[in-house]
Specification:
elongated; metal-binding; GTP cyclohydrolase I activity; GTP Cyclohydrolase I, Chain A, domain 1; binds guanosine-5'-triphosphate; zinc ion binding; EC 3.5.4.16; binds zinc ion; GTP cyclohydrolase 1; GTP Cyclohydrolase I, domain 2; 2 domains
């Protein structure tokens, strides 16, 4: 198990008590066969789902190499699952993360961009903050000339309850540095990310 797949050190008994209370509150019998182990399962699930709370983006981005490449690097279609902090149900979709290395040509490992998405996705989140946290962490830790992050996601809180609109996609973007200041650069990235639609 690598450092970044390690579950969060949560208070298991406390989550178990709370889940048992929720089951009682909805009129269920927490002692029936199918539910008896549910509080413990949920505690383990939360330890995974919120593992990002115990992870440091600086560590993910500590791999930096110098390959003298100063053009755009883009990893698109990174599958991501996060948890809506309002309803504690998932929102899920794709993240696209691009950057232009600084004048020293410093890049990070491609997988680190996907790991960075997970560090912030595996926390109670809203999509806008998730998007900007990824962008800001890249700016802070690899000092690139610019960063673009686009996330497209479906929110189960809009599908299984509430407004009940399955299929509605929320698209958020965060641009920093040259992607913010130079429209053609941003446009090039957006067309690579979204493709012809
Ligand atoms: N901006 C933003 N809103 C979100 C996100 N995830 C969920 N929401 C919204 O958070 C809002 C919470 O609204 P409230 O009126 O406080 O809660 P609610 O009564 O459960 O709202 P409904 O979902 O409309 O039933 C809802 O409109 C959700 O769609 C997100 O990532 N970003
Ligand atoms: Zn929600």
């Amino acid at each position: 198990m690598t450092e970044f797949s390690r579950p969060l050190d949560v208070d298991h008994p406390r989550i178990e008590r709370a889940i048992r209370e929720i089951l009682l509150a909805i009129g269920e019998d927490p002692d029936r066969d199918g539910l008896r182990d549910t509080p413990a399962r949920v505690a383990r699930a939360y330890a995974e789902q919120f593992a990002g709370l115990g992870q440091d983006p600086a560590e993910v981005l500590s791999t930096v190499f110098d390959i003298d490449h100063q053009e755009m690097v883009l990893v698109k279609d990174i599958e991501m699952v996060s948890s809506c902090e309002h309803h504690l149900v998932p929102f899920y979709g794709s993240a696209h993360v691009g950057y232009i290395p600084n004048e020293k040509g410093q890049v990070t490992g491609l997988s680190k961009l996907a790991r960075l998405v997970d560090v912030f996705a595996r926390r109670p989140q809203v999509q806008e903050r998730l998007t900007s946290q990824i962008a800001d962490a890249l700016m802070a830790h690899i000092q690139p000339a610019g960063v673009i992050v686009v996330i497209e996601a479906e929110h189960l809180c809009m599908t299984m309850r509430g407004v009940r609109k399955p299929g509605a996609k929320t698209v958020t973007s965060a641009v920093r540095g040259s992607f913010r200041d130079h429209e053609p650069t941003r446009h090039e990235a957006m067309s690579l990310i979204l493709g012809p639609r």
